[in-house]
């Protein structure tokens, strides 16, 4: 028996930033990294300032864990020819942003970039790809560990550690995953791809994730918001795919930009209208990407009041 769950991108936008739900991210990361993980905070992410197209195409979270590492978790739907380069840029930017002005370079945070992608990247047969830089001596072909020296606060003695500073990248290719579950991380990938879990799953926190993300657990008003979100995502992705096709036929970027702008504007209006009786103008503007004045104009045009 399977359980219908909220899509993971919606959960990232609306649920996982709540500290009570950090355990869901922790369970996924424990299965992926094969180590215990504790999330300390969720910080400002790149997509919070993204364009309208990006808001429908990708969702990301920037988390800080108990080992002082930054973890970027991103869901990406539409294909980007330079996605790999953008992932490298995003991780590098997180490294730079981890230092305040005047900080010593030794305070940089390790960054782990995790991408859940719904298109083929790098290899069509591999559903889980990992990359990391290491230093290796060419004479004896051995891995070189870089020491870090620090003073123990209690004993005042110098302590040597060998922290792993280099960025890591994980790419989870949903298209290549054949729903064959063999290890704990496969259970989470199955959940992300199919929006449900099986009763036989036993990975740490996955049952809790299934309970927290149950669609049936949503209050009626929030369930309606979620249904509209799913509908809007489908509409917007279809708009983008159609616009890209028309753009290619009309002549590259100009046609694509025009098609996307027209489709997105129409889609936003339709979504906003469905929210008029249950959400305030401010919330609709924030969720849909319109101005408060535009929402008020729609409310007047359709004569729909907010229910008390």
Strand order of the largest sheet: 2-3-4-5-11-6
Report how far apart the termini are: 39 Å
Q: Could you give the order of the helices and strands?
A: EHHEHEEHEEEEEEEHEHHHHH
Number of helices: 10
Q: Structural class per helix/strand content? A: alpha+beta
DSSP strand count: 12
Based on CA inertia axes, which overall geometry fits?
Answer: globular
Q: Measured on Cα atoms, how large is the radius of gyration? A: 22 Å
Mean pLDDT: 78
Q: How many domain modules?
A: 2
Proportion of helical residues: 40-55%
Residue runs with pLDDT of under 50 for 5 or more positions: 48-57
% residues in beta strands: 15-25%
Largest sheet: 6 strands, mixed
Topology:
Blueprint: E1 2-4, H1 8-14, H2 22-33, E2 39-43, H3 52-57, E3 58-65, E4 70-76, H4 83-97, E5 111-117, E6 128-132, E7 136-137, E8 142-143, E9 148-151, E10 158-161, E11 168-173, H5 184-194, E12 196-198, H6 206-212, H7 220-250, H8 253-275, H9 281-288, H10 292-302
Parallel strand pairs: 4-5, 5-11
Antiparallel strand pairs: 1-12, 2-3, 3-4, 6-11, 7-8, 9-10
Please give a structural write-up.
- The chain folds into 2 domains: 2-132 and 166-215, no CATH class; 218-302, no CATH class.
- It is 43% helix and 18% strand.
- By secondary structure, it is α+β, with helices and mostly antiparallel strands.
- A 6-stranded mixed β-sheet has the order 2-3-4-5-11-6, with helices on both faces.
- The chain is built from 10 helices and 12 strands.
- Strand 9 and strand 10 form a beta hairpin.
- It is globular and about 75 Å long.
- Mean pLDDT is 78; it is low at 48-57.
């Amino acid at each position: 028996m399977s359980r219908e769950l909220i899509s993971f991108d919606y959960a990232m936008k609306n649920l996982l930033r709540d500290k009570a739900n950090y355990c869901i991210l922790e369970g996924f990361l424990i299965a992926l990294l094969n180590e215990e993980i504790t999330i300390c905070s969720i910080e400002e992410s790149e997509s919070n300032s993204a364009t309208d197209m990006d808001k429908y195409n990708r969702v990301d979270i920037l988390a800080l864990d108990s080992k002082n590492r930054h973890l970027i978790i991103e869901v990406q739907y539409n294909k980007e020819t330079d996605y790999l380069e953008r992932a490298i840029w995003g991780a590098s930017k997180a490294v730079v942003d981890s230092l305040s002005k005047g900080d010593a370079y030794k305070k940089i945070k390790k960054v782990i970039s995790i991408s859940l992608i719904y298109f083929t990247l790098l290899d069509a047969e591999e559903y889980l790809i990992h990359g990391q830089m290491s230093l290796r001596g060419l004479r004896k072909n051995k891995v070189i560990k870089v020491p870090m020296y620090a003073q123990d606060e209690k004993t005042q003695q110098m302590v040597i550690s060998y922290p792993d500073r280099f960025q890591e990248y994980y790419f989870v290719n949903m298209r290549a995953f054949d729903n064959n579950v063999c290890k704990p991380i496969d259970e989470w990938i199955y959940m992300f791809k199919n929006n449900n879990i099986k009763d036989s799953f036993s990975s740490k926190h996955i049952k809790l994730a299934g309970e927290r993300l149950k669609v049936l657990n949503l209050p009626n008003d929030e369930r309606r918001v979620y249904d509209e979100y799913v509908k809007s995502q489908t509409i917007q992705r279809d708009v983008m795919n159609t616009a890209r096709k028309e753009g290619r036929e009309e002549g590259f970027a100009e046609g694509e930009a025009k098609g996307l702008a027209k489709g997105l504007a129409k889609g936003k209006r339709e979504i906003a209208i469905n929210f008029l009786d249950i959400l305030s103008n401010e919330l609709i503007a924030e969720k849909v990407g319109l101005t408060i004045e535009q929402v008020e104009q729609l409310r007047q045009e359709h004569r729909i009041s907010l229910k008390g």
